[in-house]
Amino acid sequence: MPAYVFKGKTRSGAATSGERNADSKDAVIAMLRREQILVTSVKEKGKEFALPKFGGGIKPKDVAIFTRQFSVMIDAGLPLVQCLEILGTQNDNPNFQKVLLHVRQDVEGGSSLADAMKKHPKVFDDLFTNMIAAGEAGGIYLAGKDWEYLRPATPPVFSLKEFLASIDRLLAAEDLPICYAHFGRAGRSHPMLKRQRAQLLFWESVMREELAEGEDRLTERCMGRLLREDPELKDFGAMPAADQEREKFFTASSLKGYWGFLQENPQS
Fold first, then answer.
1. What is the pLDDT of residues 64-96, one digit of tens each?
2. Short-list 29, 27, 33, CA closest to 10
3. What is the pLDDT of residue 125?
């Protein structure tokens, strides 16, 4: 069984590293997630190497086309890693192909999309990656002619304190447009991030109240109450039917991520 070396962060944000024996890199990542470690790098022992930085021959037009295609695929509900895999393997520019596949590798290893892209500054500049970072902290934003919908992205290894701290750091930065890594964009990040911060705290209040009433049908109860009371979800019924079906699934996933945090932190 091969050995793998890893780097990551604990739930408290502390850096950690070590070695695990497993059948594959995916098995190591799954093992570390069970230990509540956010993986940033996993490499088979003896094969560690620094990834080269590519960027030559990649034009702004190439990045613009990628961004447009990436947005369409994300809006269609495809997983992030799958989008990067498809766009990377199908890209006609060999240098850009290498960049995208290295970004996919880092994201699959546990890195955020923004951090993975920051390793390639000749391709993705600070403005681009900061917009992505704001979107990853923000979650999902959908808007139609007469409605809008905002939902947090709370993954299985979730810490409200760290999430709020990330939003606060972004609020201290320039008020740039925000591109949500899951869905959507908005012209200014600060108003959206303030709304997201308030929403996260509202969800905590509702979920703690429901948890105090017992765990029977907990997800169903919370989802029903949030759809009724969260002002950011009030237009759920106005969304297209396909968006509603998708959001029922992802809202349940967001709730499960939040549950893990609440169960380990009876009081925040």
1. 889 888 877 766 656 778 889 999 898 889 899
2. 33
3. 83
Residue 57 gets which letter from DSSP? T
The span from the CA of 211 to the CA of 259, in Å, is: 9
What is the residue extent of each domain of the chain?
A: 3-44, 60-124, 134-264
77: left (phi over 0), alpha (psi -120 to 50) or beta: left
CATH 1.20.81.30 fits 60-124, yes or no: yes
For 124-171, the pLDDT digits (tens) are 887 777 667 655 555 677 788 888 888 887 665 577 887 888 888 888
DSSP 212: H
Give the position of tokens 């996993």. Answer: 42
Per-residue b/e over 124-150, b at no fewer than 16 CB within 10 Å? beeebbbbbbbbbbbbbbbeeeeeebb
Q: Where are the beta strands (DSSP E) in the chain?
A: 3-9, 15-21, 38-44, 140-143, 148-151, 178-179, 185-186
